[in-house]
Specification:
By secondary structure, the protein is mostly beta strands. The strands form 2 sheets. Strands 1, 2, 5, 6, 7, 8 and 9 form a 7-stranded antiparallel β-sheet that branches. A two-stranded antiparallel sheet has the order 3-4. A hairpin with an 8-residue loop joins strand 1 and strand 2. The protein is globular and about 65 Å long. The relative contact order is 0.21.
Length: about 160
């Protein structure tokens, strides 16, 4: 059975180091696909053989378009980044990828929370509305757990 795209949810923490405030990405997006740009090294030897080593990924996702909505906590944080020319750890937050497929007894689903940095690409837009497209740069610091889609709370698995 194929899994519909809507069952892979991405919740970005608009709290940026403060209280958790997860906002689901996707209202205006036709696509969100984090790219896994691999660090690949290929070596050929004198026997004509090639060895391949993949030693890491530079994962990044693009959120475009992103339409600003008054009262939305993610919009407020993005506008704060623009107004304050924020850099470094002021851009650090986390994103939770939630797997909404499969049976569950309640509103919690398997999830992975990953540290990330937000890069605002531009702001303004056309007559369709005020837009703030941004990139999500993943750091690779991950925690497995469960995410409650009703309360929008992440709970890490025990023993991690």
């Amino acid at each position: 059975m194929k899994i519909e795209r809507r069952y892979m949810a991405h919740y970005l923490n608009a709290g940026f180091g403060g209280a958790e405030n997860y906002c689901r990405l996707g209202a205006d997006l036709e696509e969100y696909s984090p790219e896994l740009t691999a660090n690949v090294e290929k070596k050929s030897n004198i026997l004509g053989q090639t060895s391949v080593t993949i030693d890491g990924y530079q994962k990044q996702g693009e959120v475009s378009p992103y339409y600003a909505e008054a009262g939305d906590p993610l919009f407020e944080k993005l506008q704060e980044i623009i107004d304050g020319d924020l850099v470094l750890d002021d851009l650090k937050t986390d994103i939770v990828e939630v797997k909404l497929w499969g049976e569950t007894a309640d509103t919690t689903y398997p999830a992975v929370r990953e540290e990330c940095y937000i890069e605002v690409v531009s702001y303004g837009g056309d007559t369709t509305g005020y837009q703030i497209p941004f990139n999500v740069h993943y750091t690779g610091v991950k925690v497995k757990g469960k995410f409650d889609v009703k309360t929008k709370k992440f709970v890490a698995d025990e023993g991690l």
